[in-house]
Write a structure and sequence with these properties.
Two copies of one chain form a homodimer. With about 110 residues, chain A is of the alpha+beta class. Chain A is built from six helices and four strands. Chain A has a four-stranded antiparallel sheet with strand order 1-3-4-2. The model of chain A has no long low-confidence stretch (mean pLDDT about 90). Chains A and B meet through helix 1, helix 5 and helix 6 of A and helix 1, helix 5 and helix 6 of B.
Chain lengths: ~110, ~110
């Protein structure tokens, strides 16, 4: 089995993470991954991302580059997860407060 | 004495606030106002904003429109302050966690 994992950035940059989160589509991806049970992983296809495939790829890349999410490849499938432990350790409370602050918009959108 | 105050938005939008914060110059304005002693107010001239005047005006407007900051006019002078109480009540922990998360970048920048 071919298992690869793209390495997340070693240094987490707070501003880069903030900018990665400050977009409704990307924040919705984060929200879906945050609400993921069990393994916390979803495939790209398992996420509901209402934009074109190339736009979605751009958003995934922005989140991956910032270290907000990480991917695990298994053969041709990509599994994504939120790097919650790393983010909570480095930036306590940020992900939760941002998800809460934007929850109303997500619910009505 | 001519005292006017531009009314901040009645409804605070979490996504709009997040997008207003996700810029190094605007976040630095917020950081300066957050660290302001006594009245919590600064004039535009009292803030260190290393961009052109028109760019600075754009950033102030973005923060005002989102309700992150508010202004009080006294004659021809404008005093700005962070709407910390309103933000902390509506979005607990967000401003503090965002300022903490980006503090290292601000210190080295």
């Amino acid at each position: 089995m071919d298992i690869k994992q793209k390495s997340p950035p070693v240094h987490l940059d707070g501003m880069q993470i903030l900018q990665a989160l400050a977009d409704p589509v990307r924040l919705d991806i984060v929200r879906q991954l945050a609400g993921c049970p069990d393994s916390g992983e979803l495939t790209c296809g398992g996420l509901h991302v209402p934009v074109t495939k190339s736009t979605a790829s751009h958003h995934f890349k922005t989140l991956l580059d910032a270290g907000v999410i990480a991917e695990r490849r298994e053969g041709t499938r990509k599994f994504l997860h939120l790097r919650r432990a790393e983010l909570d350790e480095r930036f306590p409370g940020m992900i939760d407060s941002v998800l809460r602050a934007t929850a109303a918009a997500a619910a009505s959108g």
